[in-house]
Design brief:
CATH architecture of the largest domain: 4-Layer Sandwich
Number of strands: 21
CATH class of the largest domain: Alpha Beta
Strand order of the largest sheet: 6-7-8-9-10-11-12
Distance between the termini: 46 Å
CATH topology of the largest domain: Metallo-beta-lactamase, Chain A
Low-confidence stretches: 377-381
Largest sheet: 7 strands, mixed
Length: 381
C-alpha cells in the first residue's frame, strides 16, 4: 500500500475524535523530550529515532506493531517519509507522514467559538504546540485579533473565510515565550497594533498605546475596554469585551496566576501583581468569563475543549493564591514557585519589540515548545 500524508490539522482532528492510531516520532531523544505532540486525550506514541532505523533497521521496525494505523512525524518531513517507505515496504498497510514536519504542529491554530452575540462572534484560537490561546472578535466586515502567534497568515485566511478583514491587533503584553504575529500583520495587511506603552516604549514599529479605560469598537460591535493589570510585566493589560469576557494574556490563568519574575525583577513585579490581584482581579464579578493566554493541561478545557472559566471558579481553583493578603507573603509564594526561564526568552522579547530580527528557521527553533509563564502550586516543578 502506498505511503500517505497528513496535515497538523488532520492530527488535531484525530486527537479530538480519539481515533485509534500509533504516532511514531522519529526525531532524536533530545528533540522528542523537549517538545512532542500533545492533545486533549491520550495518544499511543512511540519514539524510535531516525538514526536507529538507519543503523538497526530490523530491530527498529520490530518495535512498530502491526495492525494499527501508523502516523509518522519528524523534524522536517523528509525523515518521516523515508521511514514510512521502509514500513510500507515491510508490509505495513496504513502508514502516513506529517507534511512539513513537527513545526506544522508547533504552528497549528485550532479555532473554537467562545460566544455569539447579536452583532459579533468571539473565537479562541488554541495553539496546542505552545499551550497558548489567541482570540478573534468579528463584527460586520472587521475582525480584531488579540495576542496573535507568528502564524499570521492563519488570521488573515480565517477572517477572509468569515467575509471580513483583520483591522486591529491587540497585545496584552510584550511576550517572552513566543514570537508575536502583530507586526507581521501590520506589515502584511496594514493592521493597526494596540499595545501597552510600558512594555512597548522601545518598539521600532508604530503602535497605538493601550491606555487604561480607553474603549475600542468596530461599527455596531461590542466595546473592547482596556484594563491595565501590571505584574506579569509592567504593561500587562486585559481587554474586556461586551462587559463580560476578559482576555487576560498572562495575568490570569485557569489554574494559576502569571509569573512576575521573567523580567529579572521578581520582587518589584510581584508587588505590582499583588496590587493587581487585590485591587482589580478580586473585584471582578464572579460571572466574568476569563479567557487566558495559556493553559497548563488539557483538563482545564470544558466539554467543547474551550479554555474559559468564570472568575468565581478561578478564585476557587486557586484559593491559596487569592487568599494571600499581603505583598510579602505573595512574594514568598512567587519565590517558592519560580523556575528557570528558557534562555531564548530574552531574545524573543527583543524580537517582539522590533529590536532584533532572525530568519524564519531561527524563529521556528526559538518559538517551539510549551510556555513557562505561570506561577502556580499546580504547575511548580
Amino acid at each position: 500500500m502506498a505511503l500517505g500524508s497528513f496535515t497538523a490539522e488532520d492530527m488535531f482532528g484525530w486527537l479530538v475524535n480519539r481515533d485509534d492510531f500509533l504516532l511514531l516520532d522519529v526525531r532524536n531523544d533530545v528533540e522528542f523530550g523537549r517538545f512532542k505532540v500533545e492533545g486533549p486525550f491520550p495518544v499511543d506514541m512511540l519514539n524510535v529515532p531516525y538514526m536507529e532505523f538507519i543503523e538497526m533497521e530490523d530491530e527498529s521496525v520490530a518495535k512498530v506493531p502491526h495492525g494499527k494505523k501508523v502516523r509518522i512525524v519528524c523534524a522536517r518531513e523528509g525523515s518521516s517519509k523515508y521511514i514510512g517507505e521502509i514500513l510500507t515496504g515491510r508490509g505495513y498497510t496504513d502508514v502516513a507522514h506529517m507534511k512539513v514536519g513537527i513545526k506544522a504542529w508547533g504552528n497549528l491554530l485550532a479555532p473554537v467559538r467562545v460566544a455569539k452575540g447579536g452583532n459579533y462572534e468571539l473565537f479562541q484560537f488554541r495553539r496546542p504546540g505552545k499551550a497558548s490561546c489567541s482570540y478573534g472578535l468579528i463584527s460586520g466586515r472587521e475582525m480584531m485579533v488579540f495576542d496573535p502567534a507568528k502564524n499570521f497568515k492563519f488570521y488573515l485566511d480565517f477572517a477572509k473565510d468569515k467575509g471580513c478583514a483583520v483591522t486591529k491587533t491587540f497585545e496584552t503584553h510584550r511576550q517572552a515565550d513566543y514570537i508575536s504575529g502583530s507586526d507581521m500583520l501590520r506589515r502584511a495587511a496594514a493592521v493597526e497594533i494596540v499595545a501597552p506603552a510600558d512594555d512597548f516604549k522601545e518598539a521600532r514599529f508604530p503602535y497605538t498605546p493601550a491606555r487604561h479605560g480607553d474603549r475600542h469598537r468596530m461599527g455596531e460591535g461590542p466595546e473592547v475596554e482596556i484594563i491595565h493589570t501590571p505584574g506579569h510585566t509592567p504593561g500587562s493589560t486585559c481587554y474586556r469585551i461586551d462587559g463580560k469576557y476578559l482576555i487576560t494574556g498572562d495575568t490570569v490563568f485557569i489554574k494559576s496566576i502569571g509569573r512576575p519574575d521573567l523580567g529579572g525583577m521578581a520582587k518589584a513585579w510581584s508587588e505590582l501583581l499583588f496590587g493587581t490581584m487585590t485591587g482589580t482581579l478580586l473585584k471582578l464579578a464572579d460571572d466574568t468569563v476569563i479567557l487566558p493566554g495559556h493553559y497548563m493541561e488539557w483538563d482545564e478545557a470544558d466539554e467543547n475543549l474551550l479554555f474559559a472559566a468564570t472568575m468565581g471558579k478561578i478564585k476557587s481553583l486557586n484559593a491559596d493564591i487569592y487568599a494571600i493578603d499581603n505583598a510579602d507573603d505573595f512574594y514568598e509564594f512567587i519565590e517558592a514557585n519560580m523556575r528557570p526561564q528558557p534562555e531564548e526568552y530574552a531574545k524573543i522579547r527583543d524580537i517582539n519589540a522590533g529590536l532584533a530580527e532572525v530568519d524564519e528557521e531561527q524563529q521556528e527553533i526559538m518559538d517551539i515548545g510549551k510556555n513557562e509563564c505561570a506561577a502556580s502550586v499546580h504547575h511548580a516543578r
